[in-house]
User: What shape does this take?
Amino acid sequence: MFCYQCEQTRNSQGCISVGVCGKNSEISDIQDKIVSALINLANSAERSLKHTDLIIKGLFMTVTNVNFDRDFLQNFFEELKNAYYSEEKFDIKKLWNENDDVRSLKSIILFGLKGMAAFAYNARCFNFKNEVVDSFFYEALQAISQKDNLNELGALVLKTGEVNLKAIELLDKANTETYGHPVPTKVTTNIEAGPFIVVSGHNLQDLYLLLEQSVDSGVNVYTHGEMLPCHAYPKIKKFEHLKGNFGTAWQNQQKEFENIPAPILFTTNCMMPVLDSYADRTFTTSLVSFPNIKYINQNKDFKPLINKAIELGGYKAFQHRTGLNGGFVLSVGYGHNTLLTFMDRIVELLNCGKLKYIFIVGGCDGAKSGRNYYTEFVRKIPKDALILTYACGKYRFNDIFTEKIYDIPRFMDMGQCNDTYSAIKFIRELSKRLNCSISSLPVSFVISWYEQKSVSILLTLLYLGIQNIRLGPGMPAFVSPNVMKMLINKFKIKPISTPDVDLKEILNV
Ligand code: SF4
Ligand code: SF4
Assistant: This one.
């Protein structure tokens, strides 16, 4: 096997015998077969709704920490072959032996596409589709097998970011038109006595359907990981049995799920290999699957999950639990609709110097020790600067801040990884109001990356011309030295160093 698509790849080079994520060579092999078949399909088959759905599903199920189930993947591969089978085969494994820079640019495009597929898939659950997004999957997959020109591939890297902006806009539309615009909401980390279910992943619809089906069942529901922002959506927060948030980011799940008297539902990544200690109370749905773990199919009948919660009974007494820094109230709900209501005041405070800077510290969490950089970094941000965040990296610091800068919360959580869209809307509006380009705003992105959604988000930020992004904890293994040089020259992208050095440089002090 060879896989280097995520940040935790072995020795920062590539997983070659078994994945650090737990993916074995058999799973890696089927995933490669799926990606190769999707490229063949994009090259030769007619474009159709059915084919586009297969491309989106297939790319998403090969994203890190989504699917570890040989049978599930093999069945999907058979479905692909039935839909379209071609003798002239492109094999993705060839890509790993191409010229360093060609391989690098094609890998960036492929991994960006995988991230975009995750967003497109979640939007499709609500029947939201976008012609530009759909057709780009074909264009980019074709290019991976057909193009070798570095300039053309470089342009396609940025186009992946451009089209991904449409994908996250589409998902924002799907989520907000269905459940309303997020509103500022406080979420507890405490767990009440009695039966409960923990829901992980990013799919709002799965959470909503479960809440609907569990009304009056006596079972409470807690979000986990990237589900946390769902508490802020009006049509989701109305459920009284949606009580709070359980645990922290994905990499802690094996420890956090071990002893709880409750079932867990995974709706998307990031799922780690399920330990025996909680295997009999773990459920998956949609494209997430793990061998011998109960799977809830597209009928979305969550009764077995609800019954499991009743059988396990939950805690006998109230549990006081906290975030990583001892706080037990998390603030969510600062999507673009809310953020823009602060715009006048933010501009006023910036103009009179009472607000000095805005940091957007967002992205994925992960297991590497260097990630405590982000906790230290936000702790050292001066008191007269705002902090905006998104995605699951925030669990390192989202229980710390309660203060305000005048009448504006100093720390605002915009939501999931796709809600970078809110950050983009915010900075675009700010640049209009301050009459300057996005790159000259008093705003910096400090990003933690992990899997392929963060690749697509990064490409979108680059497409928008955002410069001086701090990226960590390490640089992607799939970026060749020449491509890295180009990113540094063109976008002034920088690896994180130490919080003190980076803050000093950003604030020019
Ligand atoms: S997804 Fe990441 S950890 Fe898993 S095999 Fe690939 S590079 Fe390794
Ligand atoms: S933000 Fe990234 S790392 Fe975190 S759960 Fe989502 S996909 Fe996984």
Q: What stands out?
A: The pocket of iron/sulfur cluster (ligand 2) is lined by residues 225-226, 250, 269-270, 364-365, 391-392, 417, 450-451, 453 (CB under 6 Å). The mean pLDDT is 97. Residues 116 and 164 are 6 Å apart (CA to CA). The radius of gyration is 22 Å.
